[in-house]
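Cross-posted from the bioinformatics board.
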Amino acid sequence: MAQMSYREALNLALREEMDRDERVFIMGEEVGYFGGAFKVTDGLLAIFGEKRVRDTPISELTLVGAGVGAAMGGLRPIVELMTVNFGLLAMDQIVNHAAKIHYMFGGQAKVPLVIRAPQGGGHQLGAQHSQSLEAYFLHCPGLRVAIPAMPADAKGLLKTAIRDENPVVFLEHESLYSVKGEVPEDEDYLVPFGKANILRPGSDATIVSYSKCVHDALKAAEELEERGIDVEVIDLRTLNPLDIDTVVESVKKTGAVVVVYEGWRTGGAGAEIASRIYEAAFDSLDAPIERVASLDVPMPYNRYLEAAALPKVEDIVRAVERVV
Amino acid sequence: MALEREKHLAERSLLTLTETELQDMYRMMVLIRRFEDKVAEMYMRGKITGFCHLYAGEEAVAVGAIRALYDKDYVVSTYREHGHCLAKGASPKRVMAELFGKATGVSRGRGGSMHLFDAELRFMGGYAIVGGGLPLAAGLGLSIQYKEEPEIVCCFFGDGAIPQGAFHETLNLASLWKLPVVFICENNFYGMGTLTQRAICQQELYRFAQPYNIPGVRVDGMDVLEVYAATVEAAAHAREGHGPYLIEAVTYRFRGHSMSDPAEYRSKREERIWQERDPIKRFRRRLIERRISAATLDQIDREVDAEIEEAVRFADESPDPDVSEVTKYVYVDA
Ligand SMILES: Cc1ncc(C[n+]2csc(CCOP(=O)(O)OP(=O)(O)O)c2C)c(N)n1
Ligand SMILES: [Mg+2]
């Protein structure tokens, strides 16, 4: 174990996997000489050279499409989107191509591609730089969606993503890069897809979350503890596959659920998670499921407006108080 | 229309290709034509459904280009890809079965007319998003370059893809990285019913090569030897590490855009003019004049007819995919 940041954990995963497998390479805007817009790929160019750490033009559609083609050609590409917002220009290649190719050709081709994308708000970057778009990818069969909250999971999930045979959308929250934690240095440290992590056991209510909101949920749980409410916090870690079993088991114990996520409230991942809980554990619920999410607005610039649009610790606390 | 040089190279091919090679080219063109005629018939009879875009009239492009490739070169295509898939060597039986939606089809009945695939033949798929195949072709080219393999990629697309961002992004990237990709634009003057004059700012489509610093040529896409000769040059260029190449093959589809299009936006006169340039008839005349007897070619025609009948029988008798397997292939099993 070593203390390192989420960013360093991702960097380590990339380094280890590129060391392990010649076919693994990374390409994206500014991943090489600049070291990555968020410095995740810092230092990789010096180690692996231009062939395997490839700066690209600002052509998201073709960048992702070339990743798909390279994967079909037997390589294991990692495409870094500078942020998920720009990934919208590549939706055709992600949804119409990457996600379809294995199925539509009757299993003859596979696309072992990882698309990494920073996302999320909270830095006053305005409407076009602050989105959390996991629901778009979650909606589409054929894609995997990994979305780590903790440095150790950042490493372990990214390594799993790189070794997976399917296209994986790997979403990193921009506020998490500097968050530190214990990370296993073991080169075979893999976190499996579809296994949620119970970060804090509790008996009164279940908070289901992922990505940056997991940290808010943990803070809310501490506050609630002071008020005598014992909260279980579950980090889903991947949205596809979705480990609904772990959630349902928790709900059967607590009877109360709050789903917390940073995407827009309407049509967000929380809607899917809540539906699955209703389908599997309706009788165990003592109150309707609450969702704490972003307001349905384009992200405003002004700091007070932005704070009002994003989910906050106190929103989670209040939601839990309503359901218990 | 074509430059003298292209005509000259085509003439040379007529002399340098062996008799067997010329016969094979003729056979494949006839095969595609009769296959498509049969597909139209089967569509009318309800055996084939969904969107179905026929390649009749454009055979010289697929056959000329693919004949110039090595077996292990990749081909990427569009939704109008029956011809490319057959020319790459796919079994007419299994292509027909795919159109019938059968389990024995090249895509196991999951793809249909627009999504043929044959991994073994390196036919890397028909894609129904206009321009969608170009980035994939660049990526396959990258995989070849990365692994230092001797292959190239041949990517077919219509004139309709020229105004797509994917075309411009891909040509820039492929040129920048010197990817071994031969881009072949099948200019049949229409994207569905819209004339290229009404969609593209430049009618000489091969000129789009120039801003991307790559060679571009226009060839007569109704002349299989001209397409062949140009692709030989383009493939050598790509294979030798000089990067991509753009070929504009001027051609014409003899039928509507799809099976549901009566093509009322085109004049009968225009259709007649192009029918007179029928690539199969022209090639046949030329072969008889110069290299191969009419009797030999007639024999090929008969063999093809039998093969098509066999393909239909196979498709008809094949089972549908098992409905219990509808979710198979969404993910690669771990
Ligand atoms: C991105 C996209 N937009 C629109 C369509 C609908 N569409 C299907 S074929 C076609 C025309 C394409 O023409 P062209 O590329 O010239 O190919 P051709 O049919 O002539 O072979 C259109 C607009 C599509 N499939 N994909
Ligand atoms: Mg066209």
